[in-house]
Design brief:
Layout: H1 7-12, H2 24-28, H3 34-45, H4 51-66, H5 75-87, H6 93-110, H7 114-142, H8 151-161, H9 176-189, H10 191-216, E1 223-225, E2 231-237, E3 248-253, E4 258-263, H11 269-285, E5 293-297, E6 301-305, H12 318-334, E7 339-343, H13 352-367, E8 373-378, H14 381-388, E9 394-399, E10 401-404, E11 407-410, E12 415-416, H15 424-430, H16 433-436
Parallel strand pairs: 1-5, 4-8, 4-9, 6-7, 7-8
Antiparallel strand pairs: 2-3, 2-5, 9-12, 10-11
Helix pairs in contact: 3-10, 4-10, 5-7, 6-7, 6-9, 7-8, 7-9, 8-10, 13-14
């Protein structure tokens, strides 16, 4: 079963987007090869769903953070090598001789470029093999344990490098017969190993790049626990794009599974909720997280409702779109899935009375699903007071506002309780809007 996160959630949290410089993907996309970028994209699209797989991937990143190495490969050489191996599959020396010989004759007679392209593929492949040998020596100096994460890649490198027939500088002026020999070895004898080697090189690129980002931004690695543990605890939580942000602690358990969040506009509620969602998503990928420490039980997925759009084509108002979003989440929760749910300003598209009643009823109902964790924010603090009287599984916290000379200041630090801060009119007056009118 794969981890669930629909398009609404991915958009709310700005998780994906190769061409979106503000996406979480862009934050980690410091890889040097297209193959690694494709692999990184796959990792973002498919978070992991069992604790062992998550912890094993985290261990890979952590290793390269503790043992930094330079990625010695040229992206264009790797692409040329990959294309070369895909084009050629000569199983015997005679077939290799026939193919290379035919292209050499065409070069001499009609100045065809196919032979030089073949030579370029051979040279690129030899350079990559040479780079693998150099990197393997660097890694072997760093560690001696047999369970180090690069050992599978190192075994393939050693298998290819041991063959004396592959010796020789790729920059040398080789004869046609030498090119035939290299072509036979690369596309016939070692084609399977070299294609597997390319895959592992792209993995190394991702591991090195992500570990470097984690170290530079002081991220940590979460510990994944089995689903039945039913907890999520994180300290020093911040948004991954904010390096000097105020941090907070988040904690959820089966008997304390709802965080009811209040605070004035601009107090930081949305940023905190997005930070929590990104934190949990990255943790399920096995990626470093923007927290000082985290441990969590594996969940089935995450849903958010932060920027729910109306739909003019279907005639949906903003409120009806909100209702449909809550319905979709309710169906998933009632279906027995273990989920992390974010609702930012429940039912803000309707009047205060209906919003109060709906927030009270929906929050009470969701609190009964102890296998799911919820963050629900609202401006309607009266609903919080009503919930406080009857629900023990709900934790009430707020982001405070401090007034200084009629100007609101925000601490961005969670406090226990429910706030009644309302600074909307003060902000409007400070901007001089009423004076303009």
């Amino acid at each position: 079963m794969s981890f669930i996160a629909d398009k609404q959630t991915l958009d709310d949290l700005s998780l994906l987007g190769q061409f979106n410089p503000a996406s979480v993907f862009s934050l980690f996309n410091q890889v040097k090869t297209r193959g690694a970028e494709k692999l990184l994209d796959e990792m973002f699209l498919h978070p992991l769903s069992d604790a062992d797989s998550i912890n094993n991937r985290s261990a890979m990143f952590r290793y390269f953070g503790d043992h930094p190495v330079d990625f010695p490969f040229n992206g264009r050489q790797l692409e040329r090598m990959e294309a070369y191996l895909d084009e050629g599959n000569e199983g015997s020396y005679l077939l290799a001789l026939w193919k290379i010989g035919k292209k050499k004759i065409a070069e001499v007679l009609v100045k065809d470029e196919a032979y030089q392209l073949e030579v370029s593929g051979i040279q690129s492949s030899l350079r990559v093999v040479s780079g693998c040998i150099a990197l393997l020596r660097q890694l072997e100096k760093e560690g001696r344990d047999q369970d180090e994460p690069w050992r599978e890649w190192g075994a393939l490198v050693s298998e290819v490098a041991r063959d004396p027939r592959l010796k020789g500088s790729p920059d040398d002026q080789h004869s046609m017969m030498e090119h035939v020999r290299f072509h036979h070895l690369l596309t016939g004898v070692y084609r399977r190993q070299l294609k597997a080697l390319l895959t592992l090189i792209y993995q190394l690129d991702v591991y090195i790049a992500v570990a470097t980002v984690a170290k530079s931004r002081r991220f940590s690695y979460a510990t994944a626990l089995p689903k039945e543990k039913n907890i999520m605890e994180a300290w020093g939580v911040r948004h991954p794009w904010l390096e000097k942000a105020v941090t907070n602690t988040l904690s959820f358990r089966g008997d304390n599974n709802v965080l009811f969040l209040t605070g004035a506009n601009m107090a930081g509620k949305s940023t905190l909720m997005k930070s929590a969602g990104i934190l949990l998503y990255l943790a399920h990928m096995g990626f470093p997280v923007a927290a000082t420490e985290m441990r969590f039980s594996v969940l089935d997925g995450i849903y958010s409702s932060v920027n729910v759009p109306d739909d003019l084509n279907k005639g949906y108002s903003h409120f009806y779109a909100e209702v449909l979003r809550v319905k979709k989440v309710a169906e998933a929760v009632a279906g027995g899935q273990s989920l992390f749910i974010i609702f930012d300003e429940l039912f803000k598209g309707t009047n205060v009375k209906d919003a109060y009643d709906a927030t009270l009823a929906v929050t009470t109902a969701f609190a009964g699903f102890s296998n799911c964790f919820f963050i629900i924010s609202t401006h309607i603090f009266e609903a919080g007071h009503a919930l406080m009287e009857k629900e023990s599984s709900i934790r009430f916290e707020f982001l405070p506002t401090v007034m200084k000379n009629h100007v609101p200041q925000y601490t961005y630090r969670l406090q226990r309780g429910i706030t009644e801060d309302r600074q909307g009119m003060i902000i409007i007056e400070n901007e001089g809007i009423l004076d303009m009118l």
